[in-house]
Structures are given as structure tokens and as C-alpha cells.
């Protein structure tokens, strides 16, 4: 179901305070998968609608939504999208304050999602509203999107991007909000998560010689996978470092008195921009073939793929969108160096559609998914001006960007 709120006359007195807005957002429990995203989207939609944006809520599933808001500043020009995600990871235990009761202390705002990625969501909304109401840009369009379930399988972005393509409304460039300390990241690793099933032969645990122990065989396979991971260390990207392959889940056995027939190993394989999921699966299957040769009686195969945000992507550092964003940061005495993101994000879906994309936002990578997640209040406030500067720089020219 899709609900659209038409633009009304903007209320120039209603520019939200970014700390207040973030505090309200963090108080909404949008945990993936158990929480709901609607209240977070509603708060953002209300602020944007009050500033004259046309807002649309698209319901993907109960409690799971995409928010899109648009404001045309004038005829012609570029369309620039600010994008981030509504969901957060589970809070876990050990917090020094309640994770969904945001608290400011020692100059930092604590709460689950304060950095990943409700801090970027709040700062982007405030920057878009400020620029829209400044009247300084009279061409182009600002698009704001807050998407569903990025922390799972990126269902929101996987739905949004094809819809934009089908409607002929792809933006000319996208800034994806993730905690980067407001540094511009132009590349990110992707991931693929093969679930490997090792099959042996069951027998009574009192007569193990009549069986083939799948758990023991899985241990032998883990050794081969470690060799494979070591080989990957020789393949490096200048912004992202090496590709990796990490066993993250192991489970097997059927009963405490039986030789286990089956064991499953889930891998987290991080991909560099020059790698494809198909090529990676081919390489892993080659490892499994070597395992079969060395382990008579046991087999191993990729049974399924666990959910992942998606593959890797990169925007060239000399792309005009990147160059303009660097110019905007430098003009505001901010770090304009380029970097890479070692985790997944929704950039991959926009790049796959040919849209130049950057990752940039307040907060630090090391607090993502961590206990006592937080964002520095001064950095959050400064990020509003930096987002606004990048937007203004990108919208000033009407010349189309190359894909």
C-alpha cells in the first residue's frame, strides 16, 4: 500500500533541531526484524511535509515501510537523493543507559541507531529542509528516501530502485548516509553468505567406525577454507584492503548418542568491487571439490545463501559528483579525502542502476552495532551544514552527471 501526502505551503518557522529530531527517532524501536519502522518514517515525513516536500509512504509488509519525499526547487537541473535506512540492529545487553531512551551526556547522544543510521537520517532531513527554505538554489530537485530493512536483506532499496527505474525517476546522484565521520567513501565491500552443508553417514555413537562424522569432516573443511581465506589476503583494493572469508556459524548433529550425519557452516565472504558473487561461488565450489577428494565418504555443497545487503560497488574518485562533493567539504574546512567502507550498505543498489553514489554521514564506524552506540553532538550538528553544502554544490550546475 502506498500513501502520498501532497506538498503544502512550507512553514518556514519549522526547521527542526537536529538533536531533538534524532532524539525522537532513536526513541522509536525499529529493530530489525522485530520492531516497526512506521513511527520513524512518520516523524521524518511530518518534518519534510511541513517544509513543502511531497511525501510517500510505501508499505512493504506490516510495520515495514519506505519513505520518499520530493521537493522541486525550480525547472530543470539535477535530482539529488539523500538516502539512509530506518531499521536498526538489536540492542543487546550491557548498555549504560536504556538503548531506546536516548540520553545526551559528555557531549554525545547515546541510543541504538544514533549513528547507524538515524543520525544521518536526521541530519539529512534538516539539511534538505534548510536548503529548501534558504531560497539560494532555484533549479533541480531534492529527493529524500528512508528505506526499510537494510540491516537484513535491503528489502527497501531492492524495492525502491526498480520502482524509480520503472517510473523514469532515478536521481542523478545519491548520498547514502552511514556513520563515516562525514568522510566521503566512494567504495564499499559487498557480501555473500554461502551456507555449506557437510553430509556424512550416521551410526550409533558406540560404533563410530560404521559412520562418517560430519562434524569432524566439517573441521577438515574449515582448514581448507582457512587456506582459501589466506590466499584472499593477496588481493587488495586501495580503499578497502583485502577480500575476506570468515566462518560465522557452525551447527551439526542430530542426537547425543549418534554419529552426526550433517553439519552446516555459514560463511561471510566480503567482496571487492572487481569481484562478482558468481565468481566467488565458483571459487568456493572449487574448495568443496578439493574437500571431497581428501575426505572419502563425506560430501559438501552450498545448500543456500543467507540474506545479505548485496554486492560491492564503487564510484570513481574523479567522477564530477565526487569532485564536487570534495570541493564542498574543502570550502567548509572539512576533511575532503576519500575512503572506503568495509561493511555493506545500500550504495550497491543505486550503483547497479548506474547512479553515481557516495557514502557519508555523522558518527564513527566503530560504534556501529556496538553497545552504547552514540554520536558526538557537535559532529551531528556540523553534518547538517556539510550535507547542505554538498547538496548546494551538486544542484548549482544543470549539466547532467555521467553514470
TrEMBL record:
Among the GO biological process terms of this entry, one is:
lysine biosynthetic process via diaminopimelate
Pathway assignment reads: Amino-acid biosynthesis; L-lysine biosynthesis via DAP pathway; LL-2,6-diaminopimelate from (S)-tetrahydrodipicolinate (succinylase route): step 3/3
Q: Which PANTHER family match?
A: ACETYLORNITHINE DEACETYLASE (PTHR43808)
- InterPro entries registered for this protein in UniProt: ArgE/DapE (IPR010182), ArgE/DapE_CS (IPR001261), Bact_exopeptidase_dim_dom (IPR036264), Peptidase_M20 (IPR002933), Peptidase_M20_dimer (IPR011650), Peptidase_M20A (IPR050072)
Q: What is this protein called?
A: Probable succinyl-diaminopimelate desuccinylase
Question: Locate the Peptidase M20 dimerisation domain: which residues?
Answer: 186-294
Q: Which NCBIfam families match?
A: DapE-ArgE
Cofactors required: Co(2+); Zn(2+)
Keyword list (alphabetical) reads: Cobalt, Hydrolase, Metal-binding, Zinc
Amino acid at each position: 500500500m502506498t500513501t502520498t501526502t501532497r506538498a503544502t505551503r512550507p512553514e518556514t518557522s519549522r526547521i527542526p533541531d537536529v538533536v531533538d529530531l534524532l532524539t525522537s527517532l532513536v526513541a522509536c524501536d525499529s529493530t530489525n526484524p522485530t520492531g516497526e519502522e512506521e513511527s520513524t518514517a512518520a516523524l521524518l515525513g511530518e518534518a519534510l511535509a511541513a517544509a513543502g516536500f511531497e511525501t510517500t509512504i510505501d508499505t512493504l509488509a506490516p510495520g515495514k515501510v519506505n519513505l520518499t519525499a520530493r521537493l522541486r526547487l525550480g525547472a530543470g537541473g539535477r535530482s539529488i537523493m539523500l538516502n539512509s535506512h530506518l531499521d536498526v540492529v538489536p540492542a543487546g545487553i550491557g548498555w549504560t543507559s536504556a538503548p531506546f531512551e536516548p540520553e545526551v551526556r559528555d557531549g554525545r547522544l547515546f541510543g541504538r541507531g544514533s549513528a547507524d543510521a538515524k543520525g544521518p537520517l536526521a541530519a539529512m532531513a534538516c539539511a534538505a529542509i534548510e536548503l529548501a527554505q534558504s531560497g539560494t538554489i532555484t533549479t533541480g530537485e531534492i529527493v529524500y528516501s528512508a528505506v526499510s530493512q537494510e540491516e537484513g536483506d535491503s528489502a527497501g532499496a531492492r524495492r525502491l530502485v526498480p520502482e524509480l527505474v520503472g517510473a523514469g525517476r532515478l536521481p542523478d546522484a545519491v548520498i547514502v548516509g552511514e556513520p563515516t565521520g562525514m568522510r566521503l567513501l566512494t567504495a564499499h565491500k559487498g557480501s555473500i553468505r554461502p551456507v555449506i552443508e557437510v553430509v556424512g553417514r550416521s551410526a550409533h555413537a558406540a560404533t563410530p567406525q560404521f559412520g562418517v562424522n560430519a562434524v569432524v569432516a566439517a573441521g577438515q573443511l574449515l582448514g581448507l577454507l582457512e587456506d582459501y581465506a589466506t590466499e584472499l589476503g593477496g588481493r587488495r583494493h586501495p580503499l578497502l584492503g583485502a577480500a575476506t572469508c570468515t566462518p560465522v556459524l557452525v551447527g551439526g548433529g542430530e542426537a547425543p548418542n549418534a554419529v552426526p550425519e550433517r553439519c552446516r557452516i555459514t560463511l561471510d565472504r566480503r567482496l571487492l568491487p572487481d569481484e562478482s558473487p558468481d565468481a566467488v561461488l565458483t571459487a568456493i565450489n572449487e574448495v568443496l571439490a578439493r574437500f571431497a577428494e581428501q575426505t572419502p565418504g563425506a560430501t559438501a555443497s552450498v545448500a543456500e545463501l543467507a540474506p545479505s545487503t548485496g554486492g560491492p560497488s564503487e564510484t570513481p574518485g574523479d567522477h564530477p559528483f565526487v569532485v564536487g562533493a570534495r570541493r564542498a567539504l574543502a570550502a567548509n574546512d572539512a576533511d575532503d579525502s576519500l575512503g572506503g567502507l568495509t561493511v555493506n550498505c545500500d550504495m550497491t543498489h543505486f550503483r547497479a542502476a548506474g547512479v553515481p553514489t557516495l557514502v557519508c554521514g555523522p558518527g564513527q564506524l566503530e560504534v556501529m552495532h556496538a553497545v552504547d552506540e552514540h554520536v558526538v553532538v557537535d559532529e551531528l550538528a556540523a553534518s547538517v551544514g556539510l550535507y547542505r553544502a554538498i547538496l548546494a554544490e551538486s544542484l548549482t550546475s544543470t549539466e547532467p552527471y555521467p553514470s
